[in-house]
Amino acid sequence: MFSLRLHRLGVWFKAIRVPFFTATIIPVTLGSILAWYDANNFNWIKFCWTLLGAMFIHAGTNLGNDYFDHLSGGDAANPNPTPFSGGSRVIQQGLIAPYQILFAALLFFVLGSAIGLYLNYVSGRNVVLILGIIGVFLGFFYSAKPLRIGYGSFGELAVGVGFGPLMVMGSYFVQARSLSFKALLISLPIGILIALVLLINEFPDYLADKKVGKRTLVVTLGKPGAVVLYHILLAGAYLIILFLMLFRFLPLYSFIVFLSLPLAIKAFVVSKRDFDKIYELLPANASTIGLHSVIGGLLGVSFLLDRMFIN
After folding, report:
1. CA distance 89 to 117
2. 61 vs 106: CA distance, rounded Å
3. CA distances from 138 to 12, 65, 149 (A)
4. How would you class 121 by CB atoms within 10 Å of its CB: exposed for 0-12, middle for 13-18, buried for 19 or more?
5. Cβ distance 15 to 88 under 8 Å?
6. pTM to 2 decimal places
7. 147 and 154 Cβ atoms separated by less than 8 Å
8. How far apart are the C-alpha atoms of 190 and 171, rounded to whole Å?
9. Residue 12: half-sphere exposure toward Cβ, Cα within 13 Å
10. What does the alpha-carbon distance between residue 185 and residue 241 come to, in Å, rounded to a whole number?
11. What is the pLDDT of residues 178-206, one digit of tens each?
12. Closest alpha carbon to 34 in 185, 160, 157, 162
């Protein structure tokens, strides 16, 4: 009985795509560290509630994406799913019924929204409320009709905004109870990097997405054009960080971010060479996910180092 329940839990973890929660952990943690750095204020309880609420919205978004991609036939039309693309496959494999996925998605959105309302109450000024409404809107209508944002060419932008500025600014405000232009600027490379995760993961889905009318940037630009955009944005993330360092929005210790360059070079080389292949491209998919986590983590560490050794 215990092993059966453990297996069932593992199936739901697969559906929720728990390993991808780094997309939430990184911006929420970075925003909270920035608030501590600027306002000398950090509340662990608020941090935990913020992280949990954001992960609930993330889980709802992932489950909703699985459900609505099932309805459109996009996941079923994909003959070559990978660990990074093609959905969780729990519906296609008959592991969880579609109605259960939809119910769980709505439940997670409700739970995340409830936490957001609590954080808005204790933070005041309705900033968390506004950012939360935008986040839930983007998460649900990323796949749901009538908007289906992810089915057009703005899906990558929506993900970049949702998991970049919205989460960094929201977590910053919960701790500091103020908004910061600096935090907004620092959230930009984080948003770009998570958008790149989505972009590179869309390459294996090209044929399936095209078949069901999903106009992602890879479908719209074609794989050759999309990989050029991927390279430009990858370089752009580093250039923004360099710009922020030069104009002192980032501390000098942020140079440690450039320790990630070998991973970026690997992603560049593999994507340039194998963008039209599926399984050969997987190292670029993994490297892009790694870059988001490593760069976001190192940015947070740079503020900790600056506070420790300067102040």
Report:
1. 33
2. 9
3. 23, 12, 8
4. exposed
5. yes
6. 0.95
7. no
8. 14
9. 14
10. 9
11. 999 999 999 999 999 999 999 999 999 99
12. 185
- Classified as helix, coil or strand, 29 is helix
Helix (H, G, I), strand (E, B) or coil at 79: coil
Q: What is the tens place of the pLDDT at every residue in 167-177?
A: 999 999 999 99
CA dist list (Å): 246 to 102, 232, 241, 254 = 47, 21, 9, 11
Instruction: Give dist(CA 143, CA 212) in Å, integer.
Output: 13
For residue 249, which phi and psi values (nearest 5 degrees)? -80, -25
Residue in the structure block whose two tokens are 């009985």 = 1
3-state helix, strand, coil in the chain (%, to 5): 75, 0, 25
What's the pLDDT band for 1 if we cut at 50, 70, 90?
A: low
What average pLDDT does the segment 131-154 reach? 95
CB atoms within 10 A of CB 15: 24
Q: Which amino acid belongs to residue 110?
A: V
**The two structure tokens encoding residue 154:** 């703005």
What is the length of the chain?
311
Cα 79 → chain centroid: 25
Instruction: Quote the CA–CA distance of 104 and 56 in Å, as a whole number.
Output: 10
Rounded to whole angstroms, the Cα distance separating 177 from 127 reads 9
Nearest CA-CA partner of 155 in 111, 116, 205, 110:
205
Q: How far apart are CA 244 and CA 238, in angstroms?
A: 10
Tokens at 223, concatenated = 């794989």
43 vs 47: CA distance, rounded Å: 6
Beta bridge partners, 82, equal 85
8 A C-beta contact, residue 219 and residue 199: no
pLDDT at 75: 80
